[in-house]
Amino acid sequence: MLRSLAGEGTALARQILSAVDEMTPPQRVAAGEVIGQAVVESDHLPDLKSQVIGELWLRDLELTAWRVLHAERRSDDPAGRKVFLDAWTSV
User: Which terminus of the chain, N or C, has less C-beta within 10 A?
Assistant: First the structure.
C-alpha cells in the first residue's frame, strides 16, 4: 500500500474498497472474526478479542485504500501531494 502512495496500486485500492463495501454486516462480522483470530494467533495477543482486532484490521485496510485513492486524486498538485505523503508517512 505504501508504494501505492507513490502513484501505483490505485486499481487495487478501488477493488479493496469495492469488496469491503459489498459486504453485508454479517459478512463483515465473519471476516473480522477470521482475520482477528489469525492476528491473535500470529501476534500472540490472547487477551484481546479477535472480533475487535479483526474489525480494526478491516477499518485500517479501508482507510489505507482510501488514502491511496485520495493521494492519486491530488496527483495534479505535486506540492500538495508531497505534504499529504509526508503527513501520512510520519504517523
Answer: C
